[in-house]
């Protein structure tokens, strides 16, 4: 996906998407020194911000609140380093259990430890149909730079169905609360 691109989340062959997972992966850029390269720890955090039709924040799922109030959104846990292959953090959303008042879910990433994105490589977010394990959309977080956060994407109600829009807006902040003004610009 590219910034601004919107894709329908209707299942191929018909039917509606019911269970999705947003995966976030990253690696820390290796620092070069006199004695070779050294890995650094970078704590990126994935968050899901739930907004109603009026644009009000109704709930947030992040490393300090791993489940939404309605139980439909579940963060699988905080990865403090980005070590390992594949998704380093995941947020699972049961679209059928979401409160009817939830109109949009924003997925954000921020560096809790404060490093900027110039120190991060191989960063991506992706949306997976959890019932089939099919990757529906992938967005490369290629915006290496002096920012330490990004509004990655949003999933929105489109009538009775859902769609995903890649946002890729850079921001600054160490927690989701710091990112609310940047997210609000894309409601």
Mean pLDDT: 83
CATH class: Mainly Beta
Q: How many helical stretches?
A: 1
Shape call:
globular
Our estimate of the beta-strand percent is: over 45%
Q: Major sheet: order of its strands?
A: 1-13-12-9-5-6
Protein name: Tellurium resistance protein TerZ
Domain TerD: 1-173
Pfam family, one: TerD
Could you please describe the fold and organization of this structure?
- The chain is built from one helix and 13 strands, in the order βββββββββββββα.
- The longest helix is centred in the C-terminal third of the chain and has 9 residues, at 176-184.
- The chain has one helix at 176-184, and strands spanning 6-8, 19-28, 31-33, 36-38, 44-51, 57-61, 73-75, 89-94, 104-111, 120-129, 134-140, 149-158, 161-171.
- It is mostly beta strands and 187 residues long.
- The protein has one domain: sav2460 like domains (Lipoxygenase-1), CATH 2.60.60.30.
- The model has no long low-confidence stretch (mean pLDDT 83).
- The strands form three sheets. Strands 1-13-12-9-5-6 form a six-stranded antiparallel β-sheet.
């Amino acid at each position: 996906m590219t910034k601004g691109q919107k894709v329908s989340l209707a299942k191929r062959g018909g039917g509606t998407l019911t269970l999705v997972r947003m995966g976030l992966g990253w690696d820390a850029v290796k620092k070069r020194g006199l004695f070779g390269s050294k890995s650094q720890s970078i704590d990126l955090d994935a968050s899901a911000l739930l907004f109603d039709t009026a644009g009000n924040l109704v709930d947030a799922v992040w490393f300090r609140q791993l489940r939404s109030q309605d139980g439909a959104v579940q963060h699988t846990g905080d990865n403090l380093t980005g070590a390992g292959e594949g998704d380093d953090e995941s947020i699972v959303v049961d679209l059928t259990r979401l409160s009817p008042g939830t109109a949009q879910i924003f997925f954000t990433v921020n560096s809790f430890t404060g490093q900027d994105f110039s120190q991060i490589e191989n960063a991506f977010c992706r949306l997976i149909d959890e019932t089939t394990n099919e990757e529906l959309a992938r967005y490369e977080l290629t915006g290496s730079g002096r920012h330490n956060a990004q509004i990655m994407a949003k999933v929105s109600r489109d009538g009775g169905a859902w769609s995903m829009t890649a946002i890729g807006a850079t921001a600054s902040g160490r927690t989701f609360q710091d990112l609310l003004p940047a997210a609000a610009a894309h409601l």
